[in-house]
Amino acid sequence: MAKKQKMKNIQLESKQEEKPSEKIKAIFAQESIYSEDKAAKEVYEQSRFGEIKENKVTYSLVEALYLLEKNKIEINEGSKKLTFDEYLVKARKVQPNFWVRYCVFRDLRSRGYIVKTALKFGADFRVYDRGIKPGEDHAKWIVYPVHESETLTWYDFSAKNRVAHSTRKRLLIGVIDEEEDVSYWEARWIRP
């Protein structure tokens, strides 16, 4: 009798675990995405998507697309719910190299890294080592996404490397090929 009750309890627990998580309800307004919803704050606490400002969670364009692709967010513009493709068109208008940036972001997040914007460092992203959350420690890398067909001069490379060095981070170049696979090249200053 006790064995049957134990099986029922296990079945009830597994049904509760299968319960789908609530989608984040977000708003696309003037080139930014934000949410005031409880689910957004829970996702932020768990995996550091977005940034909390004035009791709202604000998302970068790439973070929002990633969450949209993973079916974790619903983005509305006015009364219209945006599809993946509609959102992508809007994001590309704001940032012409958006898809290249997104491919690198998606690849790094899928590998377990926390990726945040790095505009104040003069880079596209800053990346925290696995297991490190922003605020606990500093980012390990600054990342510049490029397409394999782009040309990067020595001057550009040197400038990017100087920015990384001056912010005490390593330079990571994310190179996207035609199949949207990403290869990474790390550069850092050394003293012989």
Quick description:
This protein has helices spanning 2-18, 38-47, 61-69, 84-94, 98-110, 154-166, and strands at residues 24-29, 32-35, 51-53, 56-59, 73-77, 80-81, 114-117, 125-128, 141-147, 170-176, 182-187. With 192 residues, the chain is an alpha+beta fold.
Task: Looking at this protein, list some descriptive labels.
globular; 5-stranded mixed sheet; alpha+beta; Trna Endonuclease, Chain: A, domain 1; 2 domains; MutS, DNA mismatch repair protein, domain I; 6-stranded mixed sheet; disordered N terminus; 27% strand; 192 residues
Walk me through this protein's architecture.
There is one protein chain. By secondary structure, the chain is of the alpha+beta class. It folds into 2 domains: 15-96, 3-Layer(aba) Sandwich (MutS, DNA mismatch repair protein, domain I); 97-192, Trna Endonuclease, Chain: A, domain 1 (3-Layer(aba) Sandwich). The chain has 6 helices and 11 strands. It has helices at 2-18, 38-47, 61-69, 84-94, 98-110, 154-166; strands at 24-29, 32-35, 51-53, 56-59, 73-77, 80-81, 114-117, 125-128, 141-147, 170-176, 182-187. The strands form 2 sheets. The protein has a 6-stranded mixed β-sheet with strand order 3-4-2-1-5-6. The protein has a 5-stranded mixed β-sheet with strand order 7-8-9-10-11. The longest helix is centred in the first third of the chain and has 17 residues, at 2-18. The radius of gyration is 20 Å and the shape is globular. Residues 1-20 have low confidence and may be disordered.
